Structures are given as structure tokens and as C-alpha cells.
Amino acid sequence: MDERPVTKYAIYDMGSDIGGITTTRYPQAGEPNPIVRVGVIAPTGGQTKWMDTGSDTNVYLARVNWLPNSEQLSIQRLNRAQTRLDLLLCDPATGASKSILTEEDPYWINVSDDLYFFSDSQRFLWTSEREDFRLIYLYDINGKLLKQVTTGDWNVTSTEGFGPRATNGLIVDEPRGEVFFHSNKENPTQMQLYRVSLKDGAVKQITQGPGTHEAVFSPAASAYVELFSTAATLPRQNLYQADGKLVATILENKVPDLDEYQLPKTEFTTVKTADGTTLYASIIKPADFDATKKYPVLVEVYGGPGAQSVKDQWDPSKFWSKMMAQHGYIIWSLDNRGSLGRGHKFETPIYHHFGKLELDDQIAGVNYLKSLPYVDGKRIGVWGWSYGGYMTLQALFHASDVFKTGVAVAPVTDWRLYDTIYTERYMSLPKDNDAGYRDSSPANFTQNLKGHLLVAHGTGDDNVHFANTALILNKFIDADKYPELMIFPGRGHPMSDRAAQVDLFNHIEQFLLNNL
């Protein structure tokens, strides 16, 4: 990886008496990426043989996998625009390569870890979103499609690998001709384990019951450890045979002390947008909820691509949310379009413009809440971290009549300041989408702030750099606006040390109590 073309980004040490600078290679949107090559060297040493990945070096070499016979190497090559993915087979002895499969998409390609080569190295499994949902396809080694293994309007999701081939996302029992995978086939908020027959395409659900079921398989795919939880059930571990028969309970994980806290329950619901799109949401009400009263609402948002927030799964971060519910707030989360888990067409409407459609969907959720007799529609707050911080700014700058208060932690404020591979996947290069970058930047709309805003950021953040917050602070000064600010010297993006976390969440809690 030749990083010499990449910008040296300076991060200043604000926790030092005399100051200090750490530099890191960070390619911002539109800037040069590293130049990457793949080489093979024998375990005994000797010269490196470089694989031929083409003359264009402005690409991503997204995945590299050995075939089981170790006589060939596969490389997945993604163009800079992330709209074309080539599967290359390379000869490690000569470096010669050939493309055996190409995926193209007018928006972007989500690269997976699902490539699976059979032990004879003559066939492979490949997943694709070419029909909207991620499905499994069987090819021969020359790239000829042999059959489509799964069909339907639901996603195949990788299982956790195990053993010497753990990098493969699909678990295959070759002697039986079966493939194991996860899917939210029956309910987008849940996850189950399935298997499909390579012979006739028959799909069978293995795990049962609502919630999230995740499996880690034995090397021979004869058994798996299931990690199961729901929004109200602590994670449990059981050992099962591959057919779903229980072998042993590993961890029942009963914690009677939790009953003393009288934790509010998480409920799930759906909301329709103006164009009829179904969105999934969760709601947490105070434990002593009284439908005759009016409650303020705190919207917890992430909203960005590649993530799903509304899941029937145990989430330790919800303890803080439930504590806020005990203060008398209704806690609301909604997965807007662009989110993971609903198919590629559910993601792509955000292409070339971040923040607008996502906010429209969040407002559809708020409008639903306002229709409920126990919601105080004049007291709607919003908070989020990272992309959720970005969405908080979008909400307060573009929907100040809807959202009274917001908390933005480590927010992106201009997508020109974020990295290449993430930003360009959805927004293209800045030179090709100048208006999209301009209109998607909260920094260009700070003058619209009317409600109460708290911004928190770590100065050592090497993901969403502190420059994002510095940018909007200058814009606020110019606009004669004065939000509250929390600065964490030297902390990174998660601000993960206990002292910082306690300080941050105590401050957020008090800010919301004072302003919502």
C-alpha cells in the first residue's frame, strides 16, 4: 500500500502543555487514495510475485482470498466510483489474471464477505444485489452462472465463519449440499438462521421464535452456537446440531437483579410515508406510562447507510434511553430510507444527496407520534452520534418547526471533510456532484438554527475530525448563534473512556431536562 499520494492529516494534541501534532494519512472526498498492489511470496522466502490487477491504479482491491487448492488467488477489484466490481482469478506463480465475473450498479455496489469456493476449486458461491435483495448464486470457476440458489424479496445475510476458512461469510455443508445463512426474511426487525438446498433451492428456517438469532458454526458445519436475544431478553448461548436440535445450554444468563429496575419495554411499530413506503420504528414509554398524560419525545437517530437501528435485539446502550424514559420522555427510533436490511432499492434514494430524504422520513415518524393523544407535539427533541449527529443538525437547521432541541455528538458538518470510500460511494466525487455536497452540508445552513443545540466532539477524533465542529462554530459566530459546546481534549470518535462517557451523558441528560 503506497500512501505517498495521500494527504497527511494533522491532529493536534490539545491535552498537552506544549502542544503536539500527530499526522495520519486520510484521503478526504475527491483526494488521492493509496495505490495498492497484491503480491505473493513463498513461506520459504524469495522474490515477491505481483498480481496483475490492471493498469488503472485508482481502484480499490476490496477482497483477497485463496482458493482451497492454493493454486489460484481471487481478488475483488472495485472502481473508484464503486459502481463496477470485477472478480479476478490470479496465478500466484506468474501473476497473470483474468476477470471471471463482473457486477455493475448505477448507484453503488455493497461489497460482501460471501464469496465461497468449493473444496474442488471448480465452483463458487457469490451473493449479489442485482435483483434488489442480496441473493445467492452458484458459478463454475470460469464465471458461468450455473443456478440462482435463492429467490425472493428478502436478504441473505452472512453467518459468522469459524475455523480455517472463517473469512467466508456463507457456511456450506458440501457433502449435504446445503448453505447456511442469516436473514430477516419474515420480519425486518428480527434475524433467523436458515439453510438452503443447492439441489432444489428449498429454504428452511432453522431457529425459531422472535428476536435475533446469530449462529457461529463448527468447522464441519455439523453444529453451531446460537447467540439469542430480544429487546427485553438478555443474550443467551445454546449449542445446537445443524438441524436445530438443542444439544446443551451454555449460558442461560438470568439476572434477577434487573427486575428491580422496572425497565420500560421496547415496542415495535410501522409508519407509512406520503408515498406509501413502510418504515419500521421502536418506541419506549415510561414504566409508569399514563395514556391520559402528554409526554415529550426524544428521537434517537442514526439514519446513515450501512446500519440498522430498529432491531429486536438486546442493546446495552438502551439502558441510558430507558433511564431517560424514567424521566418522563418517550424514546423513539426509526429506520429511514438509506438504512440497511430492506434491500438495495430502499438504500439508493439517498444517492447524491445526504440528509434530505432521511429527514423527510424522520418527520413522517414525528407526524405519526403527533397523532397519538399522549404525545406533546411541541416538545420533540432529537439526538445522535456521528451520522446521527449529522442528522440532528439537519433536523434543527431544516425542520426547526418540528424539533425543539437537539444533541449532535461528533457530527459530520461537510461531506468534503469525510473519507473517500464512504462518502464517494453515496455522493460521488465532489467535482461530479458539487450541488449535492453543498446542499447536504449542515455548515451551509447554520443561520436557520432556532432551537436549543448541544454539540460535543473529541479533538483527537481521527474518523470524523474535529474540523467538522470547528467549521460550524465559525459559521455560528458569523450568524450570531450560540449553541452549547462540549470539547473532549484528545478523545477519539467513540470518546470511550469511562470518565468522558459519564461526563458526556450526564451533560446530555441535564441539557435535555433543561430544554425539552
List the helices and strands and how they pair.
Layout: E1 8-12, E2 21-25, E3 39-40, E4 49-50, E5 59-66, E6 73-79, E7 84-90, E8 97-104, E9 116-117, E10 123-131, E11 133-140, E12 145-148, E13 171-173, E14 178-183, E15 192-197, E16 203-205, E17 212-217, E18 223-230, E19 233-241, E20 246-251, E21 266-272, E22 278-284, E23 295-300, H1 318-326, E24 330-334, H2 344-347, H3 356-370, E25 375-385, H4 387-398, E26 405-409, H5 420-427, H6 434-439, E27 452-458, H7 467-478, E28 484-488, H8 498-515
Parallel strand pairs: 23-24, 23-25, 25-26, 26-27, 27-28
Antiparallel strand pairs: 1-2, 3-4, 5-6, 6-7, 7-8, 9-10, 10-11, 11-12, 13-14, 14-15, 15-16, 17-18, 18-19, 19-20, 21-22, 22-24
In short:
This protein is α+β, with helices and mostly antiparallel strands. The chain has helices spanning 318-326, 344-347, 356-370, 387-398, 420-427, 434-439, 467-478, 498-515, and strands at 8-12, 21-25, 39-40, 49-50, 59-66, 73-79, 84-90, 97-104, 116-117, 123-131, 133-140, 145-148, 171-173, 178-183, 192-197, 203-205, 212-217, 223-230, 233-241, 246-251, 266-272, 278-284, 295-300, 330-334, 375-385, 405-409, 452-458, 484-488.
